[in-house]
């Protein structure tokens, strides 16, 4: 579980933005979206192959 404490002299908005950034870095929302619907093993493998090909093309 992520925690962000309010630092001295910090506004609520900046604390909220730090929290959102930490959520994004941790990958919690990405994992939540992936687990939203059932995905078979074959479908996961196809998705992994697509991601690998995309990484390969970028490099």
Structure keywords:
59 residues; elongated; mainly alpha; 3 helices; 0% strand; single chain
What would your notes on this structure say?
With 59 residues, the protein is an all-alpha fold. It is 68% helix and 0% strand. The protein has helices at 12-26, 28-34, 41-58. The model has no long low-confidence stretch (mean pLDDT 92).
What fraction of the residues are assigned to beta strands by DSSP?
Answer: under 5%
Mean of pLDDT = 92
Count of structural domains: 1
- Count of discrete alpha- or pi-helical segments spanning 4 or more residues: 3
Give a brief description:
This protein is mainly α. It has 3 helices and no strands.
Write the layout of secondary structure elements.
Elements: H1 12-26, H2 28-34, H3 41-58
């Amino acid at each position: 579980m992520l925690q962000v404490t309010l630092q001295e002299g910090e506004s609520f908005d900046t604390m909220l933005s730090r929290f959102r950034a930490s959520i994004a870095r941790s990958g919690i929302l990405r994992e939540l979206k992936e687990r939203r619907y059932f995905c078979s093993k074959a479908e996961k493998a196809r998705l992994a192959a697509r991601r690998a090909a995309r990484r390969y093309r970028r490099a």
